[in-house]
Amino acid sequence: MPHAFASTLRPFETASGKAGQLYSLPHLARQFPNIRRLPLSLRIVLESVLRNCDGRKLTPSHVAQLANWQPQAERTAEIPFVVSRVVLQDFTGVPLLADLAAMRSTAAALGADPARIEPLVPVDLVVDHSIMVDEYGHKNSLDLNMKLEFQRNRERYEFMKWGMQAFDTFGVVPPGFGIVHQVNLEFLARGVHKAKQPRAADGSKQAAIYYPDTLVGTDSHTTMINGIGVVGWGVGGIEAEAAMLGQPVYFLTPDVVGFELTGALCEGVTATDLVLRVTEMLRAEKVVGSFVEFFGEGTENLALPDRATIANMAPEYGATMGFFPVDERTLDYFKGTGRTKAEIEAFEAYFRAQGLFGLPGGKSASSEMKDIAYTRVVKLDLRDVTPSLAGPKRPQDRIELGHVADKFTELFSLPGTANGFNKDAATLHTLYPAPLAVAADKPAKNGKAEPTPLLVQNGDVLIAAITSCTNTSNPSVLLAAGLLAKKAVKAGLTVAPHIKTSLAPGSRIVTEYLQETGLLPYLEKLGFSLAGYGCTTCIGNAGDLAPELNAVITENDLVCAAVLSGNRNFEARIHPNLKANFLASPPLVVAYAIAGNVTRDLMTQPVGQGKGGKDVYLGDIWPSSDEIYKLLKFAMNGKAFRANYAKVKSEPGKLWEKIKGVSGQTYTWPASTYIAKPPFFDTFAMEKGAARADSTGAKASKGSKVSAEAVQGARIMALFGDSITTDHISPAGNIKESSPAGQWLVANGVQKADFNSYGARRGNHEVMVRGTFANVRIKNLMVPPKEDGSREEGGVTVYQGPSGEVEKLSIFDAATRYQTAGIPTLVFAGEEYGTGSSRDWAAKGTQLLGIKAVVAQSFERIHRSNLVGMGVLPLQFKAGESWKSLGLTGNETISIVPDADLTPQSEAQLLVTRADGTQTRHTLLLRIDTPVEVDYYRAGGILPFVLRQLLGPQPVSLPK
Prior knowledge:
single chain; alpha/beta; 7-stranded mixed β-barrel; 5-stranded parallel sheet; 31 helices; 36 strands; disordered C terminus
C-alpha cells in the first residue's frame, strides 16, 4: 500500500553534491503547523513515526498525535518508536543472546525455520562489564586483570562467538576496547543512516533514503549518546530484544522539560561538578519519564564531552533522556573522532534540511527554533556551579566540597531513617589496628623485624577509582587528574599503598593522550595505573580489599569510604564492606586518595604533607583551565581514532582470537554454570496466552467481570521502604558462599575462587534467581527490628506456611516453598521502586520467584516496563497512601483484582485479609501504561508475544 505521507519524501543534497532523500518534517509541517513548536528531540522521534508509517503498527493517527503534541496535555497516548539500531553491554547482552538462542531452539522444536529469529536492525555488543580490578597499582595490572577476565569468562565468550556466526546483524566489540557508551560515542554512532532504494518503475536509479541515528541500549546510561544529538535511552534486555526483532519501542508521550543554561563555568569547576548540580536540580524537579532538552547560550558554549557527561547521568536525575541538539560542536566532535568527510557532510546536510541544526536560544539557532514550547523550563547559571561530591548513598545527594567533612561527621551518628549510619559519635576517630605493614620494618628487641601496623578509622578512603562512563569520555577532567597528579608528585605527596587505586578509562584513546601529554607516569606514581578498559568500580567490579582490611571493618563495623568518578554509589554497589561512597571528579578522586580520609576538609586543611613535611593544600596542586586547555588538542585526533577502532576486526587481541565457539544456527547448550537455556519458553505454545495458563493462581468463571489476571490468596514476600534500586533487586557484585547462589555453585562443583560475579553469570537463570533480592544491604521491613531498633540486612523474609508455620528464610527458599504449595506472592514498596541500572534480571528474577505483583508508591521507568514485559503486575498506591498507612505487617493474605479489560492506568482493587480474619478494601492504580503493554502482559510477557509474531504466518507480498 502507498505511504500515507508519500508527499513528504523529498530530495536533499550534501555540500559535495551527493543526492539523497528524506521524510521531510518541514514539509509535514505544512499539514501540521504545530511541528514548528515541537522540541527537537520530539521531532526526531516524529521522523521515525513518519518514515515507518505502514498503516499497521504505525498509523497516520500516530503521526498526527505526535505532530500535535501539546506541552501541558494529559499523557495518555503511546508512541511506537522504531529505532535504527540496538547496543548492548555484555552483562545484559549475554542473557539477551541466551533468549534469542532459546527462541531458535523453540522454533526448531516446533518445526519452524530457526533462521526466522534474526535481529532486523544492527545490534552491537560491547564487552566492557567483565573486567575486575583484581590487580592494581603496578604497570602490568591491565595484562593480569585481562588474563583473569578471560579465564573467568571463557564460556560466556564462546557463547558470544557462536552468536557472531549465527546471526547476520549481530556484532561484538571484544574486551579491552572501552566502555560501551564511549565506544558508542566514538565509533558506533554514525549520525545518519541510509537505506538503498530499488530502481524506479522506469528502471532509473533512486537516491538512498537517509534517516537519523536512533537507538535503545541495555544499559541505562545509553543516554550518553544524547550528547551528540542522538535520540536513545536505556531499556531492559527484554524491551531491547523486542526492538531488535522488529517491534517498535512503545512509550507514553512524554513531557519535555527545557533546561536553559546561561553563563560559563568558573575557574576550577569541572564538568563533573556541573553534572552533580544538574542531577540534584532535576531529581528535585521530578522529571521521571520526561525528556529533558538542553538549550541556551550556556549550552552552546559547552564542549561536546561536557554535554555527554550531563547526558550520561539522565538515569540519576530520572529522565528518559538528557538531549543536546546537533550544532557545530557536534560536527567538530565527529571530525575529531575520525568520522569520514562523506559521513559528516551527510550528517550536517540532513539535519539542516530537517530544520534540526543548531541550539535553541543560541547563536546557531535556525528560524525553525524560535518558538519552541516546553512543558516547563528549568534554568541554571553556570557561574553558580561549585566543586562538589555526591553521596554517601545516592547520586542526587550533592555536597559542596567544603561541606563534605562536616556532612560525613553529621551522618555518622544519625539514624538510618535520616540517611545516617547510626554510629556512636565518640568512635568517629578511634583507631583500629589492621595487620598490614605500612612503614619500614623496625628492629625488635629480639633482633627480628616487626611491621608497623596499619591503623584504620571511620571515614578512611579505601578505594579511589578513576572510572565510569560519566567521566571517561571527558578529556578535560582526565587531563585535570593527570595535571593534579603531576603537581602532587612534584610536591612530594604520596598515596598510602593500602588504598585501592585504579585507572579504568572509557577507551584506549584516553591512554594515548595521557601518554602523549606525559601525565600517565605521574598517575602511576600515585597508584593510578591502568587497570582495565571497561566499567569497573562503578558497577561493583572493584575487586576485593585485602583480607586484613575486610576483617578490621567487619569486626568493628567501621564506616569506611570509596571515592570514585562514577555515576552510581548505591549501598553495597561499590564494595559490600564500604558503607560510604562518594562520586567526584577525577582530580578530586586523586586528591582524596592522597588525603586518605573524607573527614579532612580539602578546602581548609592540607591534602597532605610533601617534601620536608610541608603542608600542601588543594589550591597548590589544582590545575588551571588554561593548563587543561593547552593539552586538549592531544585528545581529538581523528587518525588515532580510526586506527584504534579498525583493530576491532583486524586486531581484536590474542586472548579473544583464542576463544572458539560452536557453530550452527541453533546453540547446543553444553553443560555450563555460566550459560543455560532460559525457562521462559518451556511452556510456550503458538496459541495466544498459552504461556500464561494458571499463572496467577486465579481463573475467571465464564461471564464473570473479574479479571482473569486477578491475584487471589497471595502472601507477602517483602515490605520495602523507599529507593529500592535494581541493585537491591537484581543479583549484582560478588557471590557469597553462604548464599543460595553460592551453595548452588558449590553443589555444581565450582570452587569459591571461581565464583566470579553475578553479572558475569547472568546467562544462567539458576544462579540469578537465587540471587534476586539477595543484596547484602536490602532491608525487608516485615522482618522484626532488632532490640536496638536497627534492621537486619540481606535477602530474608518471614515465611507464612499454609499450615500456619512461621519461619525466617532466605527469599529464594521461601519462594520455592510458596511455589511448591501453589501460593502466589507479591511485594510492597515505597517511592522510586526500581531506580538504577536497567537490569532485566530485576524483573526476570522477580517472575521466576513466583511474585505476581509489585505494589509501590512510585516506579522508575525502565523497571516498571520490564515487570510488565515479564508478566508481573505493577500497581501503584493512590497519593498519600502506602503499605505503612494500610498497617501491613507481612502476615496478611492479599488479593488484587484489576480492571477486567486491563485498561491502561485503570483502577484495581486491593483486598487485605488480616490474621484475625478482618478485611479491608483499597483502590490501586494499575501501572500497565499502554495498550501494547496489555498485549504483552496477556501473552505471558513480551518474549512469547514477539516469538508468536515471528513464527506466525508471514505476510504475503502482493504483485504491484
